[in-house]
Amino acid sequence: MILSARDVQVEIASTPILHGADLHVAAGELVAVVGPNGAGKSTLARAVAGLQRLAGGSVHWGEEDLADLRPRRLAHLRAFVPQRPSVPAGVTVRDAVRIGRSPHVGPLQRMTRGDHDAVARAITRAGADGFEERMLTTLSGGELQRVQIAVALAQEAPALIADEPTSHLDLGAAAGVARLLRGLADEGLAVVLVVHDLALAAAVADRVVVMAAGRTVADGPAHDVLHAERIAEVWHVDAALERDADGRTALRVGWLNPTVSSLDMTPRKDLVSP
Amino acid sequence: MSSVSVADVAAAPRAARLSARQALVVGVAGALLVAAVAASLTLGAVHIPLSRVIDALLGHAEAGPLRQIVLDLRLPRTVEAMAVGAALGVAGALLQGALANPLASPDVIGVTGGAGFGAILILLVFPSSIALLPAGALLFGLVAAALVFVVAWAGPNPGGITRLILAGIAISALFSAAMSALMAWRPDRVPSAIFFLVGGLTTSGWSQLEVVWPYLAAGFALALVLVRPLDRLALGDDVAASLGVRPRTIRLGAGVAAALLAASAAAIAGLVAFVGLFVPHVVRLASRSAGNWFVVPVSALCGALLLLAGDTLARTVLAPIELPVGPLMVVLGVPVFLWLLRRAT
Predict the structure, then answer these.
(1) Which CATH class for the B80-343 domain?
(2) Cβ partners under 8 Å of residue A222, min gap 6
(3) Mean pLDDT throughout B287-313?
(4) Å from A67 to nearest chain B CA?
């Protein structure tokens, strides 16, 4: 396992956000983390990435305990693509990807030839070549997301955590990012993808981790864990995931069908799909 | 082209290099600074030809009034002007970079308010100890900044940008109020403080630099160390933290460096306004680049140039009357700034 997180608990300003979440990812595996808004998906991603202090539980990257890892060492073990990146003025795509290389460059050192090569490889692999010299402020949402992934790839870490990279993208750009992340996993990277779109998660992920109310409630192949009962229980929606022989996935949603009272937010175990 | 020659490979980007526009900005500012140094040393109540100035600087001139004017009066003032300008330019560039806020200047971390209070305290309450003025301005400038950092780094979310800026505004307001209260209490002595409040250099030999040089040196050294780490904050604190950079530590370091530089500048030249805000923007707009590795050092160069040229003008255009350099620079600088701003994309 590249990442093993057990019973992760997080409090933000004394309010418990995560009550007990587990996440395990191996090399070459793409794990999608799904769940309703506020379930703690992003908090779990940030906690395992070392960006959020743990109130309990444990996170190990390889054999190393997150609590003992220095930030710079951690940056060699995992890359993190945040949900809302800053888009500063006057910074080109290449400048941005160079920042991603900084764990390999000392505070007072200059980049070596090897570092420049790694930056160029990351730009090419993320499909950001062709606009390396453009300013970040001039990019489309899809281009910007590719640059964010290139920044992460420049770290050359064996794991990549992406927090809702497709949320604001159109269909084509979202599919592009999905293919990119699947390709990276096929090349041996361990990938954690926080995502809202269940059809996309089912199509790209080896395993899906479902979160609800600060806990992980299911972990397994998409067709095993994203069945209609669980979708009703966790999202309070009548919906079914389908997959055809060509690998197309769809979420068939009974948008107006009743499941549980919208006022009763506690998951109901007794619900059975029609 | 099907093959890549050895020359192409050798020319591959080795490190961030200057663009043509960046090189032009450095070249023009450097040449103008040399010209401003020459003007500052030769012009004045007594015109001293450049050849005699060079002789004096190299120690070839025989002892006499000309040598004395160059070495004891004009050289210290020239060095002071460049030090103050460079310090303010670097302080502004560091703060704008560290706080990711284009409105940041030494005012926002309380230094200006504190230094103003320190100087007014000496001038109005202890006028017989006027020699302590630079030390007082320096001390209270640093005390104000320290208070801002303590407030901003205590409690949850230490070192957040909004908290730092609000703490700076509050502490500044406190020291400004104390300064106003002192002025209302001793209005008869306020005229002696005007020169400090508007900002300007005096011909007083090396005495002021002797007090502040260690603080200036420490500020410049810290700024130099922070230039590259600052660039790693550009994509936001989350990305920086995930890369193993410590955004809050870097921000604190940049704040301390800016406080040392701005308090030293105030100790020498009073409350010179606008330079810290204005110079880094001019550098960015003229060079069309935002990297701190370029903006911070070139802000030192352009700050030194602006203050030295402004001071030379201020003491020669209406000689023997000396205009205060602070307001003069604002009057000269604002049109340039607005012109660049209009052309900015």
Answers:
(1) mainly alpha
(2) A32, A201, A202, A205, A207, A208, A241
(3) 92
(4) 14
Length of chain B: 345
Contact A21, A216 (CB under 8 A): yes
Q: What is residue A266's predicted lDDT score, i.e. its pLDDT?
A: 52
Taking the CA of residue B290 and the nearest CA in chain A, the distance in Å comes to: 5
Q: Are the beta carbons of A86 and B234 separated by less than 8 Å?
A: yes
- Whether A60 is covered by a domain: the verdict is no
User: Is B340 near chain A, with CB under 8 Å?
Assistant: no
With residue B252 as reference, give the H or E element that holds it.
helix B247-269
Q: A105 burial class (0-12, 13-18, 19+ CB within 10 angstroms)?
A: middle
Query: Is position A175 within any domain?
Result: no
Return the DSSP state at B16.
-
d(CA A112, CA A102): 11
Structural domain count, chain A: 1
B15 and A111: CB-CB below 8 Å?
A: yes
User: d(Cα B77, Cα B39) in Å, to the nearest integer?
Assistant: 12
Range of the domain at A111: 87-154
For chain B, the C-alpha Rg in angstroms (whole number) is 21
Inform me whether the pLDDT recorded for B253 exceeds 80: yes
How confident is the model at residue A35, as a pLDDT?
A: 96
Handedness of CA B227, B233, B235, B240 (dihedral sign): positive
Which carries the bigger pLDDT value, residue A40 or residue B68? A40
Cβ contact, residue pair B244, A111, below 8 Å: no
Q: Does B161 touch chain A (CB under 8 A)?
A: no
SS (H, E, C) B50-67: HHHHHHHHHCCCCCCHHH
Q: Does some domain include residue A197? A: no
ipTM of the complex: 0.86
Which of B244, B289, B290 comes nearest A74 by C-beta? B244
Q: What is the dihedral of CA B162, B168, B170, B175, to 10 degrees?
A: 180
- Domain-located, residue A77: no
Nearest CB to A82 within list B12, B234, B239: B239
How many CB pairs (< 8 A) connect A and B?
86
- Between CA B51 and CA B59, with CA B56 as vertex, the angle to 5 degrees is 125
Chain B CB contacts of A45 below 8 Å? none
Say which of B12, B235, B288 has its CB closest to residue A99.
B235
Q: Residue B175 pLDDT more than 70?
A: yes
Domain boundaries, chain B: 80-343
Q: From chain A, pick out residues whose CB is under 8 angstroms from the CB of B243.
A: 75, 99-100, 102-103, 155
Cα distance between residue A21 and residue B292, in whole Å: 41
Residue A187: φ, ψ to 5°: -80, -5
Q: Are A75 and B244 in contact (CB < 8 Å)?
A: yes
Chain B touched by A53 (CB under 8 Å): no
pTM of the model: 0.85
Residue in chain A nearest B289 by alpha carbon: A90
Judge whether B15 is closer than 8 Å to chain A, CB to CB.
yes
Instruction: Tell me the chain B residues in contact with residue A102 when contact means C-beta distances shorter than 8 Å.
Output: 232, 243-245
Label residue B39 by pLDDT band (50, 70, 90): very high
